[in-house]
Amino acid sequence: MEPFKKCCFCCKLETGAYILGAAGLILSLVNIIGGSLILNKIIITDDESPPSTIFHIIYSVVGLICFALLIFGAKRRNSWLMLPYIVYSVVSLATVAVVLFIEEFNGIHETYVKVGLVLVFGVAICLEVYFVLCMISLYLKLRKEKCENENEGFFKL
């Protein structure tokens, strides 16, 4: 049973996958270009490259691949191509939650900044959880369709 039948309460799950994948592709490209420009500036000024910048670029490239597979999987109705996005999103959610928890107790001392960060990241985490559940619903729907199609073959009992 799929948790959701529609994405954003109004469109088909497949349409939601296309929109989510396209938005993810665009944001990943922006992150890759921005990170590359920052890395280029660091190299030109002979400063030492921070590992976080390189990690951010690699993470964005992985995201780009996962979002492309999400779109391709939704278009081809191949549920297995959607799994990389689901895993990527769950790892992203866990990472953001850990970073938010660490920042809450470590670096920032102003209360209003902490509250603002918790609100912004809280809303972002809730949206991401919703989109992951929508894509899990689409995954389950496609798996169910595939099983039903296989059961309608020659050896159906």
TrEMBL record:
Keywords noted in UniProt: Membrane, Transmembrane, Transmembrane helix
Bilayer-spanning residue ranges: 15-34, 54-73, 85-103, 115-140
Pfam family, one: DUF4728
Protein origin, superkingdom: Eukaryota
Protein name (record): Uncharacterized protein
